[in-house]
Amino acid sequence: MAQKKDVNVLVLIYSDNGGTLELAKEFAKGLEKNSNVRSVIKQVKNSDHPILKTIPVASMEELSSYDGIAFGSPVYFGNISTGMSEFFSKTTDLWAKHALEGMPASVFIIPSIA
């Protein structure tokens, strides 16, 4: 019988006030319905918001250690958040080295309502 491989998925978010975090928790629950999937929620940068300040921050070095990444961000005026954009701009070395090539990825967004 084939053995199921354990799968580790990073749910990487930027959140202003916790809305994206709440969606990330639901996303992670859906992933973990498969018994061999473990999800980890981290954020792209520290936050002083009481709901977010205990969520760990992901490092560039750890990204390639996951089997997949789900990116979550609010959307403002049709663009991802500045926090997520700043994080992506720091991943140039990973892309140049093809460190994330072939890794499954997903995106979920929270539209902002003005």
Would you kindly provide a brief summary of this structure?
With about 110 residues, this protein is of the alpha/beta class. The protein has helices at about 20-30, 80-90, 90-95; strands spanning about 5-15, 35-45, 70-75, 80, 105-110.
Descriptive account of the structure:
- The chain has 114 residues and is an alpha/beta fold.
- Strands 1, 2, 3, 4 and 5 form a five-stranded mixed beta sheet that branches.
- It is built from three helices and five strands, in the order E-H-E-E-E-H-H-E.
- The mean pLDDT is 92.
List the helices and strands and how they pair.
Layout (H helix, E strand, L loop, with lengths): L6 E7 L5 H13 L5 E7 L24 E9 L2 E2 L1 H8 L2 H5 L8 E7 L3
Parallel strand pairs: 1-2, 1-3, 3-5
Antiparallel strand pairs: 3-4
Summary keywords:
114 residues, alpha/beta, 3 helices, 5 strands
Provide the residue-averaged pLDDT. Answer: 92
- Describe the largest sheet: 5 strands, mixed
Question: What's the order of the H and E elements?
Answer: EHEEEHHE
* Portion in helices: 10-25%
Number of helices: 3
Which regions have little confidence, pLDDT < 50, spanning 5+ residues? none
Structural class computed from helices and strand pairing: alpha/beta
Oligomer state of the chains in this structure: single chain
Strand runs, count: 5
Strand content: 25-35%
Tell me, what's the shape?
A: globular
* Alpha carbon gap, first and last residue: 54 Å
> Over the alpha carbons, how many angstroms does the gyration radius reach?
15 Å
